[in-house]
Amino acid sequence: MNYIEHLEAHCGESTGHLEMEELQDHAIQLLQFQNAPFANANTVTSLGLLHHPLQFENGAVIHQEVMLSVMQQDAESDLIELIYRLTLEALKTGHAYDLGEYLPMPVGLLSKYDFAALYVTTPFYFEESFQVYKGNAAFGEPETVLPVWLVPIFASEVAYIKQYGAEKFNEMLYETEMQLLNLKRHPLVGDDEGIEESIFNREVFVCECEITDALFEDEIQRPLVLNGPLAKAYHMSVESGEQGDKDQNETFLFDFLNHQNRFPIYATFFAFEEEDKDNRAFFSQHHMSFTSHVVHFTCRSLHMSCLDRNKRTVGYVENEHRQVRVIFSR
To answer: Model-level pTM greater than 0.85?
Structure first.
């Protein structure tokens, strides 16, 4: 296996490559991958930088490739430009990118998202086996290659790093799940006013409405792929005027989710028992937590209570043995 095979083993087949004159002279190109590390994500990475040794400030030599990943498809050109500049900068200076450092965001790139810097970290959204590559001498590769992943961060997050250090900031990063790929995300830290404002812009889906891919494009902080429209969902807005008429347990739910800064998605569905093996394999492959129960039905009607005790749905089942699965993703 060489490095390109290592890339494709973890990112899938490349969907595009770019050869730019200044990089081409050094046998470096840029590669694009769709649906890596998650569905609907776009990843751009350098390829060939690994053949050029780079140095840290302490003189240690390392071999790196640089990469960025985002969900917004309209940011593709900025993504490519960023990786091009980062690669060229490493070539010209010979300086390696150190984990925990941040670089000023170039003027004019990703400008509508108000990011202040690019944070250097490991590609921890990818499988652990991707983070360190043992080079293949038969292809003239160095012994070890470390891909570095750059994450756009806000000014408030830069201030947090300055005050508390990269290690504390990394702890917050590692707790995220896909959030960092969304250029429309809220800052992980900020002043009290900023945090309060971001909380009141969030919503929990618990009231009845039709959900489609288009709705989730701008309104949710994590990607979700739907196979066609979802007939019913449930929605509560933090700003809803109806909230005062709800029970205290619903108020508690709002307070709890906002305090935790985590917004779970729960899905419940019925499946035949013989589908158990395939379903478990699917959930494991996509790192989804789930519980599974076998339910025996003795009548044809099944009443499912929703979060709002006044709303109920009625479905019909023809088989006595069905398996209920509850999947949740945070």
So the answer is: no
